[in-house]
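Ticket #4471: structure export looks truncated?
Reporter: QA, pipeline team
Priority: medium

Steps to reproduce: submit the single chain below to the structure queue and open the exported record.
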Amino acid sequence: MPADHDFLFAEVGARLLDRLADVRRDFPRILDLGCRRGALGAALGARPGTAFIVQCDLAPEMAGAASAANDLPAAAADEELLPFADGAFDLIVSNLALHWTNDLPGALAQARRALAPDGLFMAALFGVGTLAELRVALMEAELAVEGGASPRVSPFADVRDAGDLLARAGFAMPVADVETIRVSFPDALALMRDLGAMGESNAVAERRKGMTRRATLMEAAARYPAGPDGRITASFEVVFMAGWAPGPGQPKALKPGSATARLADHLGVTEIPAGDQTGQPFTDEGKRR
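Actual output as written to the record:
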């Protein structure tokens, strides 16, 4: 993957670091899971309190490039079968790598196993809204030119399932949210070339194995919605996930019905019981009449 096509990974990595900066504690032992060329690993290694960091990538070439770039240790390993001891790390960070796994729940379980008690897991991966415009254009083009459609974009995670997956893997206090990054390209063909250079080509087993017809690509480019200036916009939905390995002293949710204060009192408003129809309906503009 050429370095000049790392812009999306750099942007999402910066957002992961911003979120990590809000956590007021040190993490001496860190794993960069899916390290690519090592930019995120270098930033994590520079954090105060870091004792050592290990970089890990499925591709041996990437692991080697990361280690050469920042002089930090790196390992080539599968996220679904991590070669690290139980509780080896205090922090595991993964930037746009886990959407490639065949078994995401299994990969999360592996990360949980490698975390020490009260260790933190943070990850960013592409969500279901990613490349929605391209998916529609390719499907319509393939139907028009070839009379049928096949999967052209890899499946992605749904933010609604992310928290459940973390809990299923044994993480405490799981949270997940989503952000959408929109990137402008000269045209749809430029977007497709960049996706290939990023290493984000379609890897779905059910995809068509032959080369895409030129006519299909040109039809997809023509169907891709463009702005007045002729440029197109690609949407990348990024799901951010975080969870803690269970540990002593962690806060725990109270049992339902054990609250000792009313939210309405705290907000200074009048509580309306569920099912009360005294409120006015909303208009289509989202404003009360």
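Status: closed, not a bug. The export was complete when the record was re-opened. Leaving a note from the reviewer for reference: The radius of gyration is 23 Å.
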